[in-house]
Amino acid sequence: MPTYVRGRPQSGLKEIPTVRARDRIGGTLAFKRDQLGFLGRGIERHGDIFRFRPLGIPMVLVNHPDYIRHVLVDEGEKYDKNAVLFKVVRPVLRKGLIANPDMELWRRQRRMMAPHFTPRTVSTFTRNMTDEAEQMLVRWEANYGRGKTLDVTDEIGQLALRIVNRSLFSAQVGDIAQAFERAFGVANGILGAFFRFPFPPLSVPIPRHRRLRAAIADMDAFVSTFINRRLHEQVPTGEETDLLTLLLHTVDEEDGKGMDLEQLHHEVLNICIGAYETTTNTLSWAFYLLARHPEAEAKLHAEVDEVLGGRTPTFDDLPRLPYTRMVADETLRIYSPAYQFMRRATDDDVIDGYRVPAGTNMLINSYLLHRHPDFWDEPERFVPERFAPGPTAARPKHVYVPFGSGHRVCIGKHFALAELVLVLATVARRHRLVPPPGAPEVQPEALITLHPKGGVHLNLEYR
Ligand code: HEM
Questions:
Q1: Is the pLDDT of residue 220 over 90?
Q2: Does residue 201 share a domain with residue 310?
Q3: What's the domain count of the chain?
Q4: Pocket residue to mutate for ligand 1, from 410, 422, 424, most atoms within 8 A of Cβ
Q5: 163/228 same-domain check
Q6: Which residues does residue 348 pair with via DSSP β-bridges, in sequence order?
Q7: Do 443 and 305 have their domain in common?
């Protein structure tokens, strides 16, 4: 167990090993070309903590559960979101929870919003998840018989947006949702590349940056359509309540005031973005992994058949579907969609005897952490049983952080896990998704999120 020292660094502290530009493995260009490869080679060479400077920006990768607990939890108040990654995404996410560096505003917003993301509140949205999944299956059955190949990522993307739309706005998806999906894809690609090589600045109006601005305008139009509609319509009540209504009427316990419409807009956009691509990617990868691991798929089918006996799953079934949950957990390990996040040290600090100067960008890369060979046997293998209670208890908690940890942990974690398990179980009741003959392996693409490159394509079979 490393030892930690609070306060200003003392003499005798270690310097964090540095990947120097003249190193064979080092340099801005290597990071730009292949971020995961560059960082992986850095870990092999320097271990669980090392410094590098893409375009002269000081960054430190931490890849040990104790270091991650230090940054996110134990000393979490000393590390804020003024880190480069969040500066890159802030033109899109603005003052919403995800990238907000203003701790006072963030605390107020989180205090107001947290009650609407508890398992109890999530239970009121799970009907949306299973209804929409059932309707997706009806469409699949009508359109994808006889060996036609399904674009699973596209289909699940539409499903995830339908679920978010119903839960947030009580709305059905129209063309405007496709505009949102397209705009998000554009922004994800452009900002992912900009994070790896932040030049020229986003304020320079090159065609790529103009495309980004248009994409942000499209996402804004999506959100304001629903907020405007709600401001001029009857508000759903009781059982029918949606997240937008809850957020509109929430007041802060400290000052009795709600959030202004600009802040509400930013929060709604953050929820749409937080909820849409992460769950889409996870479910796409889950179906991909199940299609390639028939033994795991058979266990999933056995559980779903025994617990559900042919009916649609409900919120109350979640604890009765432990293997389905393990499939979700293992997918989130191998292909963690929010695979990188960052903090900036607000003060000088010390981690395990290493000097961390104020202003350092601390990078956590869960794609690499979730493959750390000291904690995961054969990390590339898909083994849902790793997440059975025994092995889970035997591992340090912070070697698995698909939802982050500490005070900035994902607010939508319960929503996401319910959606993953309920959609997997709903599909598994009736169908198998199998690889088309000769289908190549799908590679992960490291954008701002981790995306299946080219999407997951599978064939539909009846069980
Ligand atoms: C598989 C699905 C999901 C994954 C893997 C995921 C992952 C994450 C991670 C890693 C963070 C923390 C980032 C950091 O510490 O810097 C985060 C934050 C956040 N997520 Fe999620 N997320 C998922 C689904 C959702 C859903 C469904 C929603 C909304 C309904 C959501 C909304 C948010 C928000 C608003 C934050 C910012 C929280 C704060 O700073 O207070 N996410 N998510």
A1: yes
A2: yes
A3: 2
A4: 410
A5: yes
A6: none
A7: yes
